[in-house]
Each structure stands twice: as C-alpha cells, then as structure tokens.
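Look over this one:
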Amino acid sequence: MNKRVREILDFYRSENPGVLTNLARMLNHGRLAGTGMFVILPVDQGFEHGPARSFAPNPPAYDPRYHFALACEAGCNAYAAPLGFLEAGVADFAGEIPLILKLNNHDLLLNEHDPAPAVTASVKDALRLGCGAVGFTIYPVYEQLREIAEEAKARGLAVVVWSYPRGSGISHEGETALDVVAYAAQIAAQLGANIVKVKLPSAHLEQPEAQKAYEANHVPLEPLAARVRHVVQSCFDGRRIVIFSGGAKEDDATLLDEVRAIRQGGGFGSIIGRNTFQRPRAQALELLRQVMAIYAS
C-alpha cells in the first residue's frame, strides 16, 4: 500500500478495520489503483429513470452482465447498482471488481413534488453478494440513513452517499447551485459517509443568506475547478472522499473538460453512468481510458 492510499485511509481512523479494508480495496483496484482517485460505474438509472430512457440508446445495456463486463474491462475502482442488477450478474464476475449495493431507489411513475425513495435492499443483501460498500441517496431526507450506515459499518462495509438536493423547497437551478451542492456534501459527511457523491456545481447561488456569506468572504464562483475545490473543502477540508456525478450524456470534449476541472479542483474522481453505458462499448471504453488518464496524470 502506497503513501497516498495510507494518507486517505488516515482520514477515517475512527472506522473499524473492515471499513478501512473495503475502502483500501477500492483505492487499490483498477487502472487508478494507488493514485487516490476514483472512477466508479453506477447503473441505477433503469430504476430511477426507466429502462428505455436508460438503455435504448445502447440496447446491449439492458443485460445486467454488460455493465459488470464494462466496469471490469475499463478498470473501474468499483461498480454500483441496485439489488436486481447485482444479483443477475454477480455469479459471473465474483471477485473481479469491488461492488456497491444501492440500498434505496426512487422511481418516476408517481408524480410528486418531493422525492420519496424506498429502501429496496439491505445490508444483509450486500454481504450475501460480496459487496464492499453500500450506497444510499438523500435529497437530503436522511432519517433512514443513520441506522443503515451504522449497521453497514458494524459489518465492515463502507458507506457511499448520493447527496442530491431536490424537492419543493428548491428551484431546479438550485439543485446544482454551488452553495446547495456544498451544503449537501457537508450534510453527507456529517452523517458519516465515507464517500460523498454530488453533482458538479454551477456558479448559481440559491440561498440569500449563503449568497451574502459567499460575497463577503470572496468565495470564487469561477472557474469550475474553483467550485469543485470549495465543495471538497466543505467536506472537512478535503478529509472525506468526494466524487462527482457524470450526469446526462454529453459530448466527449465537454465531459473531459469537466474531468480536468475535477482533477484541478482536488476532487477524488467521477462516478459516470449514462456517459458510458449509453455509448457503444468501444466508445465507452475509450472515453473511460481518457478519463482515467487525466486522473492518473
């Protein structure tokens, strides 16, 4: 284990050896092994957005095994998915890549102003499937997270929190506002997340009182790398792993510019789903190769 990995694990000295071991497995796996950087493949979009919206652009992606193979061949640090997708492919890829079981999900069949995710899997499921971590989304409604995180860590599993502000109390633009994303990241860290997943922040400021603080203290809003740096700073001054979502599919140049900004801003990497599995396999692998090359530089 190299110096950088030990340095990151030192951020989590209060955790038990099981959690530290599973964090180390992700840090030491794939093309970015030992760099302290992450590229994780998440495939919860079939549940969250629906199958056609998620997989029709690249029909082989309807098969859960496709994503295991993509994550393994690309050299990702880990693969994250809901219960059904992991159960459908884990036997064919046992031990080949660290797994993250998403324990809650939200669907779009019910029109609602405030997201109401349901718990769709358990810590016992994660252990049964050989996972090294569990994932949980907060909006930031988080009443269930504390109990689940406590159980997961007691069993030696790391906790990854998707912290996505959303609902009737926030504007659509505010979902990615810098002050809101930084606040969401802080909440996830305060709730005990080992890895915090947030969206890339825009230069918009949503909360009037926060805007006053940003202006008075000259917190930079540009460029993107500066916003990334602020979000990382908001997670205990960089003492928690913060990774950024890839979002909806976009062109290669835009995505790679965002990756460079994450690297320059001190982020720990990306969790990229639709921008990979909605491309043909060869294109996805090449894009991931370029992403990892930037993070490894």
User: Anything to note?
Assistant: The chain has one domain: 3-296.
